[in-house]
Amino acid sequence: MNRTRFWATVRPLYVLVLVGLLAGVVPPVVRRPEVRAAKTPLNAQMITVRDSNAPLGNGDFVGCSASPGLNTYYSVFIEVPSGTSRLTIDIYDADYGSTGGPSGVNRFDNRVGNITTNYSLFDPAGTSISLNTSLSDTGLNFTQGDNSAVGTNGPDTRAANNQWKNFFTRENPAAGHWELRIIQPGGGNSGVNPFGVAAHTLDPGANRDQNLGGPTTGRGLNMYFDPGIHLGPQNTERQPPITWNYYPYITSGCTCRANEFDWDASSGTGAITFVSRTGGYTRNIPTGTETLSPNGEWRSFVVGPWTTGVSAVDYGIWSNNITINGGSANHITYYIGNHAAAVPNTSGNNITLANWRQGTSSGFTFRGMRGRRLRR
Ligand SMILES: [Ca+2]
Ligand SMILES: [Ca+2]
Ligand SMILES: [Ca+2]
């Protein structure tokens, strides 16, 4: 085990990838473990944020305000390499229950409560970016992801519902990992807001209405969740089964863990699969006597070992598919913990805000990102 990269065992790089770039276009014999992330595959693979006042049994351990829920935000990180000419972040269906937009009816969201979804942005130095309500270098204000969802977004007054909108654009952005935070305080049972994210370098134009959603071919900017994400099908448009395709970056160690919360919803079955960089190691969950999590509980599954005493060739970008079968509103919380991370107990009450975000000197970390994180 490579102890010098102790913290980098599993970089939870659940990159939101255009699946076809890896799986459909390049013949298997020449397929490279290259990640060319662009955007959330839509509509099925939307990610979600849930009302904080929804009960834990809805499946959102992070956003839930009831203990041991963490009552906090989710993060999507965007990797900006040095020399990147432009950072453009677009959000699809950022609204929470709007009836605006091209369809004239709400799509995707199950709105409960007169509340807003808050999107905020931090640069690689950890500085909060002001989100103005007029066009400027700073982003648009998406905190009005409410029923109107139009806001005063400068010339782009289109509703957020059912379409991409440009959220933020900056020329010559600081290199590093930008952080998009999403939280939805209040509301109640079953309230959930699905949305998509794209990060790329294309120009959205003066009215911020061009090149939305990023490239359909070629290279966007990588995105990843850290440490975890909330996802699931949702009536009526995103019916199960749905498979989310992610690409964790495995950099050291011999094992990691797939941790999932609340996979119980009616008829809620499914699978988590891992395939190593070379394809030499695979892991299918659940296997044998393993079972996915019941209502309001965590389950943790060992993945690996993928090394032997003489071979450690499988570091790199893996694939990790999460399939939810049945349960048209069956949402889970999911993350990968590295070999040094503590194992969540069934209630999750050994997960704290501090060790969820950052790990501690005791070695309780879910992240494995320390080797690369540029701040905090
Ligand atoms: Ca449940
Ligand atoms: Ca939405
Ligand atoms: Ca919507």
Annotate the secondary structure layout.
Layout lengths: L9 E2 L7 H5 L23 E4 L23 E7 L5 E7 L25 E5 L8 E2 L6 E2 L23 E8 L4 E8 L8 E9 L22 E3 L2 E4 L10 E5 L2 E2 L5 E6 L7 E7 L6 E4 L12 E6 L12 E2 L1 E7 L6 E7 L14 H5 L19
Parallel strand pairs: 6-7
Antiparallel strand pairs: 1-14, 2-10, 3-9, 3-11, 4-8, 4-10, 5-9, 12-21, 13-20, 14-19, 15-18, 15-21, 16-17, 16-20
Bound molecules: calcium ion (3 copies).
One calcium ion binds next to loops.
What keywords describe this structure?
3% helix, binds calcium ion, 376 residues, four-stranded antiparallel β-sheet, mainly beta, disordered C terminus, 2 helices, 21 strands
The tally of beta strands, per DSSP, is 21
Tally of domains: 1
Attached small molecules: calcium ion
Q: What class, by secondary structure content?
A: mainly beta
Q: What average pLDDT do the residues reach?
A: 80
How many H/I helices? 2
N-to-C SSE series? Answer: EHEEEEEEEEEEEEEEEEEEEEH
Question: Helical residue percent?
Answer: under 10%
Termini separation comes to 26 Å
Q: Provide the gyration radius in Å.
A: 20 Å
Low-confidence stretches: 1-37, 144-152, 359-376
- Arrangement of strands in the largest sheet: 2-10-4-8
Major sheet description: 4 strands, antiparallel
Shape: globular
Percent strand equals: 25-35%
